[in-house]
């Protein structure tokens, strides 16, 4: 059964130095408040996995919390590069960053295989490209019926997955809606999980019998953090802060401006400070 | 009319390549502008799909990211990302995939991964994302990229997504049955793979652009089709609809979206 | 793009003698009206595939339309045996019925693989049981990472899939809701498809952004057949006719009573006769 | 009290085996009655899952089929059948699976496929359905079947789902890490696998049932535990709640549901 905790307690109990951590969200519902809490609690030597590492991973990489990144597209969507990620890969600052690189299709299948308790996933992919030459985890199987050779990737099984969702009910059932990405799979594939939510309600108010719900007993810790996806967004609550995504380019470009931003906006703050970004669409 | 920018003609020409029958896997930036321009002009029935899971979306404004709320709110339905890549892209349900990249070679292979050695890159680019499987699982591929010697190169340091490989037969030898890149739309010209050699060949020059200018902007010795044409200029209507779209976008979230990489 | 046709025209155009046909629906939304139309049009030598062949397949088997059945559980749910299926398997009446038998997990995965355009599916299954001894299509692959041996099944790729759904809009987009079974996968896996619907509406009125929708261009023919799932049911429209399921046991037990029922209730009727069973929940 | 039927005590004893912490994969018939009785008495927090995709369902009446509308309408959420078998059953998220069958052997292997040769069956049974993977992917398995020599047999003609195979070590040798059948609840007694031999052994006799009656009703020479007990009789409350549930069911769709196979 899901346990209701403060975000600080949830991170303290569930995220450990050296863990394989997935913070997922495909543009939507990215768990920024939780990422900041991981920075404040000074976790080290993490391996981060995520299809689309964006600003939140740029921040974790920039503070030196990350030894390795497993990913398929690392950029600031619609803006450009992730400067902290590039600095770590290209110049080893503040610590060298190893990368294990896949395609989106492979990563999505790898989470799906993890949720399905399979050791690997099969896809029609990686044909005629160079990634398999630099990633020994891209292998193949032969179809036992047709003889066709297909690509494989190992299942992703995070030590802990962290996501943000619209709401939970008091039993700990969680509703996701809109662009749901790979979050359900990432939680089901993980050993432990933390879900931050906009609100905790009496009635989940799922609009459809087929709504995307994580039942209470599949979730580890739940923390109410209104606004916790900012500058990402929460469908039905508040929009994406595109301005912040654009502003990040200048903040992250230099080490000093990045460090100053982290001090002021992460280290000197708490999860409650995200509440200012919370709102609910009419 | 001549009142348009190189980027605008690139977008307009890309839009013209699409029809109402297409089911199109849309990338952010120029592809997104082109696909939505097509939808707002001659291809109202086109089905636009973004890899965030949004199917048959009809955004009023261009998204900044591949997963903006606008895409979901105006979609017929939104599926999970594993389903998008399994049932929809790998399922063979997409007629046209739109790609761009940092670099391209004469066989329309693309690099969006690294410049320099992979383990010690000079420039670490964002990576492949959906591109490796878009390039082989969509019916055909359109590419939009501004022409420059740094982008159109003799040899790619890294192949992120497959075009025509090393020439005729490359795709078939890998068991790939889709067409691959059928046209490359730049800000100066349109290229298509030569039917025999599969090498990208200029088939039309945009109005006012010369063959010499295009040759200079390309990193390999560029070939021209025997029946080289002039690209029809954008119509007033096309430019009007495109600018209105971008103005709506600017008003909604500031800046000129849909132009960034 | 989906084409709007009468059910008779849709079946005439899409279902051919010798086809591999899937009529799916996990208790819910079973396409009875379409099955009756296939009987009226006297298709022969079909291979039918379905996880849970129930009464509609008992009827198709009983009229001799079927050479082979691919399935995982063949019974009258909560009632007992399918007598026509048993008569065909045990005594070859009216024609011998070959069977290819799987587990539910394998069939569900096989449809999923078909929808995903993979030649086979991988599962943790079939351990210590006899089905692999009698079904040569149950094989195995070895995980290229762990060395674990896992079961495989070939993807299901029907010539034509037939389903029933709640409604379609005028562009031909189809909404399914409630117990959605494997219907979406079965349609996406098929070369051709027929969808019967309770109603055709201006606005699909999907309750959630993540509702289960088959877009128009993934669907072949759509026929409005109100009540077309009877005696199965349509969530939000009318309930399951449990009484009919119980009554079927006596009807199907003897060849004569079965033949008489088919003459009266299938051959002498049309799809329009299902309308009497249609209703919409308040 | 002695005012209960053999089927009722079987259902009550099966219900008692469940707790609020369980996530239970429910089959139709006796398992469904037992699981819902548990939910309505001592295990209100139990999570019931039916293979039709309905998760955490709380039906007011017993379903006739595994996919009745009642199950979906009272569920927390309903997923597709591929997802049910992939993420939920194979995903290892089920603590208890309930199975029944036409035939069982002393190692709790089950047959629901055929009697007689597979290719020329004397009786063609419905088949395995979810059972083969329920038997190996759930944390443990409870079996409910009425005791009779035709059902409890010396040798199965066909193994549809795995129990303890041929005895100690069978499951482990197949790479199966779950417990398998931990108890078999009949209308006359409760059996459990012997800790060493894995052979089903009577651990308690229902009130008024003798060891000889049980021996006669079983197709193999049945063993009894050293500390053989008497099954505690159903309480008045248990019988009341069960009969109310079945009366609601009868009123809703006629007949005594939840008793059929």
Task: Provide a descriptive summary of the structure in words.
The complex is a heterotetramer, with 2 copies of chain A (282 residues) and 2 copies of chain B (261 residues). Chain A has 282 residues and is of the alpha/beta class. Helices cover 29% and strands 23% of the residues of chain A. Chain A is built from 9 helices and 13 strands. The mean pLDDT of chain A is 97. Chain B has 261 residues and is of the alpha/beta class. Chain B is built from 8 helices and 14 strands. Chains in contact: A-B, A-C, A-D, B-C, C-D.
Write the layout of secondary structure elements.
The complex is a heterotetramer, with 2 copies of chain A (282 residues) and 2 copies of chain B (261 residues).
Chain A: E1 3-4, H1 7-14, E2 20-23, H2 32-40, E3 46-50, H3 55-62, E4 66-71, H4 83-91, E5 98-101, H5 104-115, E6 120-123, H6 131-134, E7 139-142, E8 149-154, E9 160-169, E10 174-176, H7 183-189, E11 192-201, E12 212-214, E13 221-224, H8 242-253, H9 255-267
Parallel strand pairs in A: 1-13, 2-3, 2-9, 3-4, 4-5, 9-11, 11-13
Antiparallel strand pairs in A: 6-8, 7-8, 9-10, 10-12
Helix pairs in contact in A: 1-2, 2-3, 3-4, 5-7, 8-9
Chain B: H1 6-16, E1 23-26, H2 30-40, E2 47-50, E3 54-55, H3 69-73, E4 77-78, H4 81-89, E5 96-99, E6 103-104, E7 110-111, E8 114-115, E9 123-124, H5 131-137, E10 140-144, H6 170-173, E11 181-185, E12 189-193, E13 200-205, H7 211-216, E14 223-230, H8 236-253
Parallel strand pairs in B: 1-2, 1-5, 5-10, 10-11, 13-14
Antiparallel strand pairs in B: 3-4, 6-7, 8-9, 11-12, 12-13
């Amino acid at each position: 059964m899901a346990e209701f905790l403060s975000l600080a307690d949830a991170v303290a109990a569930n995220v450990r130095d050296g863990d394989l951590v997935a913070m997922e969200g495909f543009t939507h519902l990215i768990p920024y408040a939780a990422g900041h809490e991981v920075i404040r609690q000074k976790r080290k030597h993490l391996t981060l996995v995520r299809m689309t590492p964006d600003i939140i991973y740029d921040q974790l990489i920039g503070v030196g919390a990350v030894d390795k990144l497993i990913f398929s597209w690392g950029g600031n969507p619609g803006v450009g590069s992730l400067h902290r990620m590039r600095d770590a890969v290209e110049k080893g600052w503040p610590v060298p960053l190893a990368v294990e690189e896949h395609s989106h299709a492979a990563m999505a299948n790898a989470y799906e295989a993890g949720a399905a308790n399979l050791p690997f996933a099969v896809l029609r992919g990686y044909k005629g490209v160079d990634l398999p030459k630099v990633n020994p985890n891209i292998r193949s199987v032969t179809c036992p019926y047709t003889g066709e050779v297909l690509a494989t990737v190992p299942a992703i099984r995070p030590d802990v997955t962290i996501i943000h969702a619209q709401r939970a009910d008091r039993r700990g059932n969680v509703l996701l809606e809109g662009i749901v990405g790979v979050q359900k799979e990432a939680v089901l594939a993980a050993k432990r999980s933390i879900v931050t939510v906009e609100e905790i309600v009496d009635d989940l108010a799922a609009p459809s019998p087929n709504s995307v719900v994580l039942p209470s007993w599949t979730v580890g810790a739940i923390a109410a953090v209104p606004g916790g996806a900012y500058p990402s967004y929460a469908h039905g609550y508040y929009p994406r802060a595109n301005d912040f995504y654009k502003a990040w380019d200048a903040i992250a470009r230099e080490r000093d401006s990045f460090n100053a931003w982290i001090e002021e906006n992460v280290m000197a703050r708490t999860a409650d400070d995200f509440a200012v970004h919370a709102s609910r669409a009419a | 009319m001549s009142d348009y920018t190189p980027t605008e003609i690139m977008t307009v020409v890309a839009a013209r390549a699409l029809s109402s029958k297409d089911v199109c896997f849309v990338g952010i930036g120029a592809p997104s502008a082109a696909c939505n321009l097509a939808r707002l002009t001659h291809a109202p029935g086109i089905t636009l799909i973004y890899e965030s899971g949004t199917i048959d979306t009809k955004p009023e404004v261009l998204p900044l990211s591949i997963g903006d709320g606008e895409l979901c709110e105006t979609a017929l339905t939104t599926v999970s990302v594993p389903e998008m890549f399994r049932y929809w892209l790998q399922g063979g349900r997409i007629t046209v995939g739109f790609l761009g990249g940092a670099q391209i070679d004469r066989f329309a292979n693309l690099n969006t991964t690294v410049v320099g050695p992979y383990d010690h890159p000079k420039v670490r680019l964002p990576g492949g994302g959906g591109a490796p499987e878009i390039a082989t699982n969509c019916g055909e591929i359109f590419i939009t990229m501004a022409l420059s010697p740094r982008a159109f190169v003799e040899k790619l340091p890294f192949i992120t997504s497959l075009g025509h490989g090393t020439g005729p037969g490359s795709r078939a030898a890998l068991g790939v049955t889709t067409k691959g890149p059928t046209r490359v739309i730049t800000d100066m010209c349109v290229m298509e793979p030569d039917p025999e050699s599969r090498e990208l060949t200029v088939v039309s020059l945009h109005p006012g652009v010369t063959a010499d200018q295009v040759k200079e902007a390309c990193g390999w010795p560029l070939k021209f089709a025997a029946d080289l044409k002039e690209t029809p200029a954008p119509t007033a209507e096309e430019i009007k609809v495109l600018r209105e779209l971008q103005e709506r976008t600017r008003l909604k979230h500031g800046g000129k979206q849909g132009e960034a990489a």
